[in-house]
Amino acid sequence: GAVVSQHPSWVICKSGTSVKIECRSLDFQATTMFWYRQFPKQSLMLMATSNEGSKATYEQGVEKDKFLINHASLTLSTLTVTSAHPEDSSFYICSARDFSTDTQYFGPGTRLTVL
Amino acid sequence: TQLLEQSPQFLSIQEGENLTVYCNSSSVFSSLQWYRQEPGEGPVLLVTVVTGGEVKKLKRLTFQFGDARKDSSLHITAAQTGDTGLYLCAGAQGYAGKSTFGDGTTLTVKP
To answer: Were B23 and a residue from A115, B36, B67, B72 both cysteine, which residue would form a disulfide, CB within 3.0 to 4.6 Å?
Structure first.
């Protein structure tokens, strides 16, 4: 099946610093990628839709200036958490849509811990 | 807003028992996916169903897509401890972009 990679798998940072998370589709081109946040034992919460070559579409309540998304190529989207605070600690998961199969494939997730 | 209601939210059973998870909506989906997620990992795709009434089997797992393509079920026969995890259904509506996810079913299979 299709593969989506995510890097880093975990990161610990100090409050006030910025953290960048990369999401890559390895064997298909993804014009659309998605960023989710997940709290323990809960489902996925969509944060934003990343569109290649254009601005991301953010879900209601998600601060676009805090969660910067860049989708510069058909295989790479990045999420930058700016001025991170402890409440931003969470599990962040990206996914990429393979339009040939109308299916979303997920990355392995990034565990962010802000001290 | 398209909603996908998944039930039950939590399920704890003994090894060897059967179970069914349901995914229901008032919206029609062009396809529906089932994922399984283990703690600390991303969801892994189990199956995609596309045709109304379609039934797919993956070893002990049987997936069914409703005739009207609004609902789906996942049935596990003779559950094993390795089936423990969070099961998510997701409905797609063509190539419009994002999928609608259910709230998930946390399954615990006890030895």
So the answer is: B72
